Amino acid sequence: MTNCTTAVRDARTTLMFAEAAQAGAAVERFLARNGPALKMLADRLRAAPPPFIVTCARGSSDNAATYGKYLFETLLGITTASVAPSIASVYAARPAPLSNVLCVAISQSGRSPDLLASVASQKAAGAYVVALVNDEESPLAGIADTVLGLSAGVERSVAATKSYIVSLAALAALVAAWSQDAVLQDGVNALPALLPHAFALDWSAAIGSLREARNLYVIGRGYTFGVAQEAALKLKETCALHAECFSAAEVKHGPMALVRDGFPIFGFAGSDAAGDDVRATAALFRSRGALVHVANDGEASGALPAYGAHPAIEPILQIQSFYNMANSLAVLRGLDPDSPPFLQKVTSTR
């Protein structure tokens, strides 16, 4: 197997590394290009608040939708649910009338057939569609009432990185504008400067636990749950690791039984009460001999460095640090993170 020094040097030549490193600039472009559209959309939503919100997404974009759900429900008080794309694409079922409901569709390509069928179905039922999409010439953009172009630029690596981070930033920016939360808006505005520093943080301590691993749990809670889902997905597709994501609350039920001496645990903890629960769960796992690495875990063994920020912004910085680590881990395990086997950039599920 390649030695660690060579692997890190080689890891810096991957598309995944290069594209993830561009996340700060991509967020800056998004904010510069979408300021007026965000204001107009926020004014509309304040004038006629939706009774509830539905999200439509797949893969990494659906992980971003999980993050959005927590923002919408905690900071706006609006119940949010994910629409199952198969309802429209497979079962051809029509939703009940959705007058004034907000549908948030998130996609890099805007071309997956089941996503398009689902969004079209929501719009036909009366929902107002907002698309967060990287390809502004895509069919999804054509369906939407409001398009927020992610402006992430071309992503050639199969593993989405910068487009995912911009999706998170876009959701936070929307909620900040909608709620007129100046503190959250300041946090969003700070992202372009903070993301390169987060990318440079040293998370290599986790690589030793994961280099020879076959299975692990990834845990988060609250605002960090969506990035925990994303991390588990990336460990599967780039590192060939069977990574399963759980809420720090849910993992204490049945999944706890599998945690034995040497079992790897990877976690994301924010500075809020949900983060306290992640840290407490991590401490419990450590007491059972698990190999635990958690971002923002203070002085605990296996703690990974993380920048403090608004609790809703911290997960965006943490996933940026994770992408650098995951890319290096993939190379160290002898894999190409840019071309995972059996995967392609646009997944045409129906």
Gyration radius (Cα, Å) is 19 Å
| Beta-strand fraction estimate | 5-15%
Q: On the 0-100 scale, what is the average pLDDT? A: 93
Please report the distance between the alpha carbons of the first and last residues: 40 Å
Structural commentary:
- The protein is α/β, with parallel strands linked by helices and 350 residues long.
- It has helices spanning 4-11, 15-21, 23-47, 59-76, 86-89, 113-124, 139-143, 162-179, 182-200, 207-210, 225-239, 273-287, 314-332, and strands spanning 53-56, 80-82, 102-107, 128-133, 146-149, 215-220, 242-247, 264-268, 291-295, 303-304.
- The strands form two sheets. The chain has a five-stranded parallel beta sheet, sandwiched between helices. Strands 7-6-8-9-10 form a five-stranded parallel beta sheet, with helices on both faces.
- The longest helix is centred in the N-terminal third of the chain and has 25 residues, at 23-47.
List keywords for this structure.
single chain; about 350 residues; alpha/beta; five-stranded parallel sheet; 13 helices; disordered N terminus
In short:
This protein has helices at 4-11, 15-21, 23-47, 59-76, 86-89, 113-124, 139-143, 162-179, 182-200, 207-210, 225-239, 273-287, 314-332; strands at residues 53-56, 80-82, 102-107, 128-133, 146-149, 215-220, 242-247, 264-268, 291-295, 303-304.
Write the layout of secondary structure elements.
Layout: H1 4-11, H2 15-21, H3 23-47, E1 53-56, H4 59-76, E2 80-82, H5 86-89, E3 102-107, H6 113-124, E4 128-133, H7 139-143, E5 146-149, H8 162-179, H9 182-200, H10 207-210, E6 215-220, H11 225-239, E7 242-247, E8 264-268, H12 273-287, E9 291-295, E10 303-304, H13 314-332
Parallel strand pairs: 1-2, 1-3, 3-4, 4-5, 6-7, 6-8, 8-9, 9-10
